[in-house]
Amino acid sequence: MILKQISFKRMDSDEFRIYSKWSAKAYADHLIKSGDERFRFKALRAAKSEFRDVFPDGADSADNYLYVVVNEKNEKIGVIGYQKSPFEENAAFVTENVIKEEYRGKGYGKSAFVKLQEDAREKGFSKMVLNVFKHTPVSYAMYEKNGFKVIEDHGGSAIMEKIFVEE
């Protein structure tokens, strides 16, 4: 597998302010598209509430690793990150994985996701867990190709995990 040359830069507070404006709205849209009727009228409120829970101190929230993805031309092409799972010891929970539309389909997403897993392993996590919406088949397929398995199916979304194997 040939990976793109990318790097991660820890997100600063100015970048977080910009990120937070669109991220909660995008998450609310995904909740609605997932077909879960509970979110039809409350999606934005639910998304904002969850966003505040995950990032109570913005970019400086404890146990969060939120990065700006930078390509070989030093362009900011996306956002990716994870947090120490609040549900499970030694698990990294993916909180964001977005590559700007104009950079999609070029290998940047796959490269960033592989690098994210390496980052989590280096920090001592033994597995990675994520939520994926089924109406995003490209993301779903990428996670499967990266060795993630469905552990919970919620109709419009699924919880997937990958246990890191010691080399």
Quaternary structure of the protein = single chain
Mean pLDDT: 90
With helices defined by DSSP (H or I, 4 residues minimum), what is the helix count? Answer: 4
What is the first-to-last residue Cα distance?
A: 18 Å
Question: Strand count, sense and closure of the main sheet?
Answer: 7 strands, mixed
Q: Tell me the fraction of residues in β-strands, as a range.
A: 25-35%
Helix content: 25-40%
List the domain count as a whole number. 1
Q: Which descriptor suits the 3D outline?
A: globular
Class in CATH?
A: Alpha Beta
Provide structural commentary:
The chain is 34% helix and 29% strand. It has a seven-stranded mixed beta sheet with strand order 1-2-3-4-5-7-6, sandwiched between helices. It has one domain (7-163): Gcn5-related N-acetyltransferase (GNAT) (Aminopeptidase), CATH 3.40.630. By secondary structure, the protein is of the alpha+beta class. The protein is globular, with a radius of gyration of 15 Å. The protein has helices at 13-33, 43-54, 108-122, 137-145; strands at residues 7-10, 64-70, 76-84, 91-99, 127-133, 149-153, 157-163. Helix 1 (13-33) packs across helix 2 (43-54).
